[in-house]
Amino acid sequence: MKAEPAVQLRLLQLQGLDTALSRLEHRRRALPELTVIAAADTRLAALRDDVVRAETEVGDLDREQRRLDGDVEQVRARSRRDQQRMQAGGIPAKELESLQHEVESLARRQSDLEDAELEVMERREDAESRASALRAEAGAVSTERDAAVHARDAAWVQIDAETAEDTGARAAMAAELPGELLALYEKVRAAAGGVGAAQLRHRRCEGCRLELAGSELRAARAAAPDEVLRCENCRRILVRTPESGL
């Protein structure tokens, strides 16, 4: 294939734009903020589950406390009735003794219920404290996530602007190249990791970083200026410049 040296040099410019576009695409996918956002989303999901569990426990303990309150009040009411009957007098000795035993039994029952109620109150306080701490952590993580989203969006705006500019420049440059040369460049670029043309610098292919030697070096030296060279190792288009060292 033949192409004027100046046209071949434009391949390096086109390659520079393609490399810049690839870097922009990689940068867009690999922003550190994306890792922060993903980690925050995972942590927030776990925190929301933990908050629900803690709040559910608080609700269950509230119901348990209300039940115990009711039980204590029933015991107190019954104890008051028994004491009033005892104080009213005129009760047979056997019934009076039975009431005294019942009052004592009710007192023990009330004490047990109040102890249980105190334990529930302590557990409820712990659960509420835990729920509050989890909500605070979720708020902090959410704030961190919002900041990362803001930074990501700002970076994307800049990257997209640079991508649009380079894409436009690439389209204009590609339109000026001979169709056959451009087709070869695109084919090689697709097969060689995004690099279709490389500079021959100091007798070394800048694509695969290997130095030309032997017959390949002699062929490069003997080639006409408008002949399109290919690296025998990586098959990329080799573009000669004053730094080629031939």
Notes on the protein architecture:
This protein is mainly alpha-helical and 246 residues long. The protein contains five helices and four strands; from the N terminus they run ααααββαββ. Strands 2-1-4-3 form a four-stranded mixed sheet. The longest helix has 84 residues, at 93-176. The chain is rod-shaped and about 135 Å long.
Topology record:
Blueprint: H1 5-29, H2 32-88, H3 93-176, H4 179-191, E1 197-201, E2 204-205, H5 214-222, E3 229-230, E4 237-240
Parallel strand pairs: 1-4
Antiparallel strand pairs: 1-2, 3-4
Q: Quick gist of this model?
A:
The chain is mostly helical and 246 residues long. The chain is 76% helix and 5% strand.
Key attributes of the depicted protein:
246 residues; mainly alpha; 5 helices
Overall mean pLDDT stands at 94
Low-confidence stretches: none
Q: Termini, distance in Å?
A: 20 Å
Shape: rod-shaped
Helical percentage: over 70%
Tally of separate helices = 5
Looking at how many chains there are and whether they match, the oligomeric state comes to single chain
Query: Which band does the percent of strand residues land in?
Result: 5-15%
Largest sheet: 4 strands, mixed
Radius of gyration computed on alpha carbons: 42 Å
Strands of the biggest beta sheet: in what spatial order?
2-1-4-3
Total beta strand runs: 4
Order of helices and strands: HHHHEEHEE
Structural class: mainly alpha
